[in-house]
Amino acid sequence: MSQAMLTIILPLALAWMMYCVGLTLKLDDFKRVSSFPLKITTGLITQLIGLPIIAYGFIHYLGLPEPITVGLWLLALAPGGASSNTITYLSGGDTALSISMTALSSLIIPFSLPLMLPLVLTDAHLVMPIKIAILQLVVVTILPTAIGMVMRAYISTKWFKNFINVSGKSALWTLFFTLFVTLLANLSVFEQLFSIASIAVLTLCLCGGLLGAIVAKAIGGDNILMKTFSIEVGIQNAGTAIFVAVVQLQQPDLAVTPLLYGILMNIPALILIHWHRVNKNIMI
């Protein structure tokens, strides 16, 4: 049952959130993003190099147990996916930039993760299935977003405009649902919620968010860019880290830290969403 939740229900929920995000976007949004390549390049460098440097510092100076250190390293090497895109949308960030960064980083991870993993797990010999990575990106992120964009562009009836409003509100509740499904599928992880691993993943999440905001400010970005970079750098793809630990490395104990992260990352994310909605005077 728990396997079905994670492999079927969760991807469907993520795809629905990306469809809701697509209903708010136009092709011009992505044209605007592509006209500022510095933003994407800087964001990707911060994601793929900046956060791993922070995680590497944690690992070497905090003296954490090996399963936690490896799990933390796996997280640092797996930039955010559909969840970070949805959180960016709900927080008032630049959604088109967020999706663009996710698309590019998803194509880089199958090469960068096996290359950098041995820096911590020295005996690791990993080959990431790039076809699976591309398929996940298309099915969960690109296709639902594109369908939403096309429907918005070609359907202008009153009922559809009302549908867009309703679906936009449903994205937040779907995010809550994904958290519930993750918790329900991993009840055994509850005993670790108040462990050193929880402190480590929350600290990594917050430091990543702070790094993203600082970098965005350094390149002259506004509050929207700071929010976007903060989420994209701070919110990692726990699913990818778990997949590598359990399927590729066949060491389920290494998946505990990413599992905790998948739950606890929602705390700062929901705070940011609530802060945005309060400031925009929007009812949750």
From TrEMBL:
Gene3D superfamilies: 1.20.1530.20
UniProt entry keywords in alphabetical sequence: Membrane, Transmembrane, Transmembrane helix
Transmembrane recorded as keyword: yes
Major localization class: membrane
Cell compartments where the protein resides: Membrane
Keyword Protein biosynthesis part of the UniProt annotation: no
Membrane topology note: Multi-pass membrane protein
Assigned GO CC terms: membrane
Transmembrane segments: 6-25, 37-59, 71-90, 102-121, 133-151, 171-190, 196-216, 228-249, 255-275
InterPro entries: BilAc:Na_symport/Acr3, Bilac:Na_transpt, Na+/solute_symporter_sf
Pfam family, one: SBF
Protein name: Na(+)-dependent transporter
